[in-house]
Design goal:
The complex is a heterodimer of chains A (294) and B (581). Chain A has helices at residues 23-34, 46-50, 71-84, 98-103, 106-115, 162-167, 182-193, 208-211, 218-227, 253-257, 268-289, and strands at 38-42, 63-65, 91-97, 119-125, 173-178, 198-204, 234-237, 241-244. Chain A is an alpha/beta fold. In chain A, helix 1 (23-34) packs across helix 7 and helix 3 (71-84) packs parallel to helix 5. The longest helix of chain B has 19 residues, at 417-435. Classes of the chains: A alpha/beta (294), B alpha/beta (581).
Chain lengths: 294, 581
Amino acid sequence: MKIHIPKEEHMGPGHLACAGCGSPLGLRLALKALGEETVIVIPASCMSIIVGPFPYSAIGVPIVHVAFETAACSASGIRASLDMQGDRKTTVVAWAGDGGTFDIGIQALSGAAERNDDFIYICSDNEAYMNTGIQRSSATPYLAWTTTTPVGNPKERPKKDMMAIMADHGIPYAAAACVAYPEDFIGKLKKAKGIKGTRFIHLLTPCPAGWRIASNESIKVARLAVETKVFPLYEIEGGEVHTITYQPKGTPVEAYLSQQGRFRHLTKEEVATIQENVDRRWDRLVKRCEGRAN
Amino acid sequence: MAGKIIYHRESEMPFSPVSSGDMSWNRTGTWRYIRPKYEDKTPPCNAACPAGVDIPMFIGLVGEGRYEEAWNVIREESPFPGVCGRVCFHPCESHCNRADYDEVMAINALERFVADQAPPLEPGSPIRGRREERVAVVGSGPSGLSCAYHLARMGYQVTVFEALPKPGGILRVGIPSYRLPKDILDKEIADIQACGVEIKTNARLGGDLSFKDLEEYEAVFLATGAHVSRKLNIPGEDLEGVGSGLDLLRDINLGKAVHVGRKVAVIGGGNTALDAARAVLRLGGNPLILYRRSREEMPAFDEEVSEALEEGIEIRYLIGPTEIIGLNGRVTQLECIKMELGGEDETGRRRPVPIPQSNFTLEVDTLIVAAGEEPNLTFLPEDIRVEAKMVSTDKGARTSRKEVFAGGDMAHLDRTVAHAIGFGKRAAISIDCVIRKRGVTSVLQGIRVGENGTLSMAKYLSEIARRRSPHVVAFEELNLDYFEHAERNERAKLPVPERVTDFREVSTGLTEQEALREAVRCFSCGVCDGCENCYIFCPDLSVITDEGVVKYRINYDYCKGCGICIAECPRNALSVEKEAK
């Protein structure tokens, strides 16, 4: 199986991501898909550090750094401004982390989605506030270790279903993607680029520091997230039509969990519970794909 | 790329904070404590190929539809892709890592496919410079012609002397055309001649040709094969109707009229025995193979045995002949004895031991003996040392006489076509070294592929070609995430009723579609095939795609040493080094 991605590059080396980080890879692939006529809005997140401090930028397209909770409304504003100037060619992209999306930025995002403002929102989800020291977010998986959910005081709530929340705004396009599947991700962005309105991409980006994995394992582990059905790759069109874009192998979740230090404390029973949760959610997704309500 | 931007006073700063420089000043390479490097390694198939063919490279080209280039890659090492693609025992396939995944690659079938696509070579095929030295090769079998071919490609003036009226040695007279059609052999010999090799037939050393005649040559390579059938040493071997398997096959292959009886017993368990029996079947006889050990000890290739069985040939194991009985000077009966297996003999196989009082007789009208072959060494001058009925040679194929080299079946017990091609190549390299006064031992050491004596001519001719670590890639070292299960594409065979009526080729080869499907199954173990995973997944934009011999480079100014490129390489073509402090 050979992966094909565009050769054009809109990012340069020297950026400040940790070794093995999935985020800059995600942004690099996104820019390959979207091209140079793109504006990126970045709220407080790992990425606001990664791209470099003023007066430098590792990215070949304009970036607007904005406050934590304002990614979506800033994108709305930039889009409105471009429209006023008659510029319909430039794609406006908000690139936020899971904290900036699931927690802090959800109000602005929900408002923009309800208005169906015309931009692509990419949530680069590494499942905790990694930049500030691995604090739990509402994207942190059930029972995962973080510095605020230490072993003994587990996170007993499941990860928030952001895809469902966004789709239920009735937006034209929402898709889940993963950096270990570049062609799938790029394909979804290209499709999103051709659609008008709020488009939401939920991108899983592995974090070696926060997931407690070696830097060379990040693609491997991200791939396992998909193959174990923990993080299915799918899209929702018009808030209704669900399509699975990659059929996972269905590897037991243990293969995914046991690779990561953040799950090392799990008991056999807890792993079994996670497997049940994953299977149940997968069945729900399959039913939705078949058009059967749940 | 801009460097660091320094504002000396507030007035130099932009009104709004717009970045104007990139991050290239930030040499993140200093963060690194491990260093990835591109290092192709040795594929197990290549290491197992006695002829040294670069298998992943030619298969990669097949996958891209570049058949002629694939053919040329094989021909760097062996002049016989069409022959080997049919008769090789393909140890490459037994070592293929794909065995642990689903089914081994059909390497042999792909080699044949490539050869079958190739056009005939135009005379005057390009060589590497012309050299005035003349080299004589005695014997035009796979070993002799391989040596001659490689020397001619290096520019030498090569003459091959062949005792028989047609060149090809065992390929011509030993292998029946249902396994190796004569036009395939003729084509590849013509290709060898197109490279400048001169072949003189009907020139038998010890007959019209003497050792003295060879002294005018700079070097001589002896490769006269093993064409003397071993006797059974039992009573009655001189009866009419008793003959050797080699003689039978030679007569058939040279187009002589051959008569066999109806009830034909064939003694032996090697390829000659199997081929003799299958030939008898095609001539209308009813062959019965008698072998004194069991199936397990049988030296014949598995494929030959299973094809013979498919054709309905009976093989009886643990039976040894004790006496050939005749009437009026003609064989009528064969007395045999049943055997059981005892302890191991000098070949590591279990020794057959006769069971007392188990004698019985078989009615036969023809008896074919194929109990092994030995070289004829009677023509050798005394100063060429012989040991264990073979010419003794050193690692560089040198005999005890200066400037005389030997190889193939007359000097080795590894008696397969692929080994013969490898020995011929080894001799060609050694002869070139001796003529150009290079140290043979160290040269041979430097161009090894794996540890089985396989040599790379590509490496010999070019220092930068096929730079690969000697490490042979194991299955566990591959990243299987990028491979999908796929069925092996098998060659079709003629149905049995059609194939036993004449000497038509049994196997029909792969179609183009099958070959393309098969080629993309190759893991390309240890050999970068340009899949781009390292480039695709590098988060630090530190993999630079390059054209030419090296496909990719790492930009160590920025590589943070995360190791993703190594982990995501499906074929272990990158290695890790500790970063020097």
